[in-house]
Automatic annotation (TrEMBL), chain B:
Part of the ABC transporter complex UgpBAEC involved in sn-glycerol-3-phosphate (G3P) import. Probably responsible for the translocation of the substrate across the membrane. This is sn-glycerol-3-phosphate transport system permease protein UgpA. It is found in: Cell inner membrane; Cell membrane. InterPro entries: MetI-like (IPR000515), MetI-like_sf (IPR035906), UgpAE/MalFG_permease (IPR050809). GO terms for biological process: transmembrane transport. GO terms for cellular component: plasma membrane. Residues 71-283 form the ABC transmembrane type-1 domain. It comes from Planktomarina temperata RCA23. The chain crosses the membrane at residues 12-30, 71-96, 108-128, 156-180, 201-227, 266-287.
Length: 437, 293
């Protein structure tokens, strides 16, 4: 029985492997996209393969972000790694520390002779994936940033003007009270709580998330999420949770279902939520910039990105690296980028793609899609708003999620919870430092 | 009492047990040895370098109050899963044993849940208790109870226990049912003639005769709760809210495969191995005394 099933597995996996295996040089590309995004990636790959006949890119889906990174790491240990691996922003420090496992993108590009200008990329996007010497180590692929989604119909139902000013949390606070009084059961919901309400919050208010420029200038970084600004924000949110003005739905983007079903009035979520909300929402919606606390830090600074970049793995033939370089160059070309931006709501990663989108009149037709771009690019990033580069960051996010839940349930004060994050997270940073000494 | 058979020489016996030894060596001793070895290092995820830290990983873990707390969570979880999977199974087995008509159908239906993979069982239960669209949470809401396992630790624990135990009830049912069938009818009839009612007969005759099966199931279920429930935890709570459902084996997975901290993960699996080993020895030494074969 077992033998049969293994045999069947072997047959099916052979059948599943791409038909185009005869081409000259194969470049394997592992990514984390399914559904509509998966289709769009497949279309990009097909288009690239059709555009030339020296290389064949073979794309495979390897699970969610964490699973894809794991698959890449496990494959590297077994000597089976792909040429190109998609790694989410949280895994960036892990990849950067793994010298010998990755080949920097600027080197790949230089060797392949493909056209590559680092300065063409939007600063806040580029900064996340660039070494301290200014060299781009991985290619930004899909980048998004959190914005505020407004259900206009829910506002009207609660008797609140949907055009009310929501640029500051002070105003949002008043609006939440009005929405609650107007009978709304879910005035505010969020996705990705740590990413939006701590990581982006810190950058947006120009306060540090961690020492050593959020980890950019050294592995000996320590968390600083228990600063006054963060604690004040989380205290306010904890109070909203207690009053039933902020509804907690889970650690990931569970809240999206509530918002898309029209149950919630306000939703803090990635700009890349656009595709899903547009196709499912049966109500009038708005995109607004993420709110900030008036008078706290240097708000509004810029928000930071989430999403993934493409890493080139070591251990392959030179010819394959040339192919990888060609493919990456194709992906970052302005037509491909502009289309990607318009299809998905991810940010255009080059200034040229942004300009092309603007010129096409897309922003006028799809009101609000430009908000994220402006929010990211309005100001030059500071040391606090370049991004985050922390080891074991997936685990640290887990700790943050746990402690935030303690705030929402009223078990801990915001200060106790954030002190606990620092106390629990720092040993992980020390271990990462030790592992990569 | 024990029967012993002696072989002449040692070649044949060695040959006979060789396949088993080989399988154990390849699939157990080798990986377990690797885990012990790895637990002494802090490696980087890609296997490019390793720092020898001696017992540093263990010291790091045992000095973490959250790790120590997960022992308590695991203990509570395992006891609950074992009880919730064994008591209803025994009850169902007794009832099914007394059935005269349709026993086969009932038995088959009772065994079905065992065929559902833990992760899928997790998704099924999660769907029923989903705070927004779940059928059960909707009914609870109508009754005035606000179900929210996303923030309420006890509710989350209850949900993962029930989801983990559910499929297991079928497994335990099978064993109890088979054991009940082997209880000699003559003893029960004799007791009945002496005037013993059903419960009296159950406590003094049936239950003692079931003890070998009960003991076997106890060991197997505890091991199950310790190791195999991680799929359910992963799909339903991911260890949350806060750390209320973070059991040891889930932490091994999360630290190793999400956090890429292989040193800590290896040390945790070594600790887990020792704990379960000690628990099994304890069960054999103290509880088995009360078992009548």
């Amino acid at each position: 029985m077992k033998k049969i099933s293994i045999g069947a597995l072997a047959v099916s996996s052979t059948l599943l492997s791409p038909i185009a295996a005869y081409a000259e040089t194969e470049v394997h590309f592992w990514h984390a996209f399914t559904g509509r995004l998966g289709e769009l990636v497949a279309a990009q790959v097909e288009d690239f393969n059709a555009s030339q006949d020296n290389y064949t890119v073979v794309q495979s889906h390897k699970g969610n972000y964490s699973e894809t990174l794991n698959a890449g790491i496990a494959a590297f240990r077994a000597g089976e790694q792909p040429q190109i691996l998609m790694v989410f922003e949280v895994g960036t420090a892990t990849m950067m520390a793994a010298k010998g496992a990755t080949r920097p993108v600027y080197e790949v590009m230089a060797a392949s002779g493909a056209e590559f200008d680092q300065d063409a990329y939007i600063g806040a996007v580029k900064g996340y994936y660039t070494s301290t010497d200014g060299d781009m180590l991985s290619l930004p692929f899909n980048a998004s940033t959190p914005v505020l989604w407004v259900n206009r119909d829910a506002f009207k139902a609660a008797g609140v003007d949907p055009d009310t000013d929501l640029s500051t949390w002070q105003n949002v606070d008043k609006t939440l009270t009005a929405l609650k009084a107007g009978g709304s059961d879910c005035p505010l919901v969020t996705a990705w709580q740590s990413w939006i309400h701590l990581e982006n919050f810190s950058a947006y208010h120009d306060v540090p998330f961690a020492s050593k420029d959020n980890g950019f200038s050294g592995l000996d970084t320590e968390l600083q999420v228990n600063g006054d600004a963060q604690i004040a924000h989380l205290t306010a949110m904890g109070q909203w949770a207690k009053d039933g003005k902020f509804i907690y739905t889970g650690r990931r983007n569970e809240g999206g279902a509530n918002f898309r079903a029209g149950e919630c009035a306000l939703f803090t979520e990635s700009s890349a939520g656009y595709a899903g909300i547009k196709s499912e929402a049966k109500f009038a919606f708005d995109v607004r910039p993420l709110p900030y606390w008036e008078g706290v830090g240097n708000a509004p600074q810029n928000t930071i990105i989430g999403g993934a970049s493409l890493w080139v793995m070591e251990g392959h033939q030179e010819e394959e690296y040339k192919g990888a370089g060609e493919f990456l160059s194709y992906l970052s070309s302005s037509d491909v980028q502009a289309k990607w931006h318009q299809d998905t709501g991810y940010l255009p990663i080059t200034a040229e793609a942004s300009a092309a989108t603007k010129a096409s009149g897309f922003y006028e037709e799809n009101v609000g899609t430009e908000v994220a771009v402006i929010q990211m690019t309005a100001k030059a990033p500071t040391a606090n708003s370049n991004g985050l580069r922390l080891g074991s960051f997936d685990q640290i996010r887990g700790i943050i999620d746990e402690e935030l839940e303690a705030i929402w349930s009223g078990d801990k004060s915001a200060k106790d919870a954030m002190d606990s994050v620092v106390k629990r997270g720092n040993p992980l940073l020390r271990r990462f430092e030790q592992a990569n000494r | 009492m024990e029967k012993r058979v002696f072989f002449k020489g040692w070649l044949l016996p060695l040959l006979l047990i060789a396949p088993q030894i080989l399988v154990s060596a390849v699939f157990f001793f080798y990986p377990a040895g690797q885990a012990v070895w790895q637990s002494l290092f802090i490696p980087d995820p890609f296997g490019l370098s390793m720092q020898y830290v001696g017992l540093g990983n263990f010291k790091y873990l045992l000095s973490d109050p959250y790790y120590r707390a997960s022992f308590f969570t695991t203990g509570l979880f395992s006891i609950l899963v074992t009880l919730v999977s064994m008591i209803p199974a025994l009850f169902l087995a007794i009832v099914a044993d007394r059935l005269i008509k349709g026993a086969g159908t009932y038995r088959t239906m009772l065994i079905w849940p065992y065929a559902v993979a833990p992760a899928i069982a997790g998704v099924l239960w999660l769907f029923m208790f989903n705070t927004r669209v779940g059928v059960v949470s909707w009914y609870l809401g109508n009754l005035g109870y606000d179900w929210n396992h996303v923030l309420n630790g006890s509710e989350a624990m209850g949900l993962v226990v029930v989801s983990s135990a559910w499929g297991r009830i079928s497994y335990n049912f099978l064993f109890f049912f088979a054991a009940l069938q082997s209880v000699p009818k003559s003893i029960i009839e004799a007791a009945a003639i002496d005037g013993a009612r059903f419960w009296r007969r159950f406590w003094t005759i049936v239950l003692p005769l079931l003890s070998p099966t009960t003991f076997f199931l106890l060991v197997v279920n505890v091991v199950y709760a310790f190791f195999e429930t991680f799929g359910v935890i992963h799909t339903i709570t991911s260890g949350g809210p806060q750390q209320s459902t973070t059991i040891l084996v889930y932490k091994v997975f999360a630290d190793g495969f999400v956090g890429q901290d292989l040193g800590s993960s290896a040390a945790q699996s070594v600790i887990l191995l020792v704990v379960v080993g000690a628990l099994t020895v304890f069960q054999f030494k103290y509880i088995e005394r009360r078992v009548h074969y």
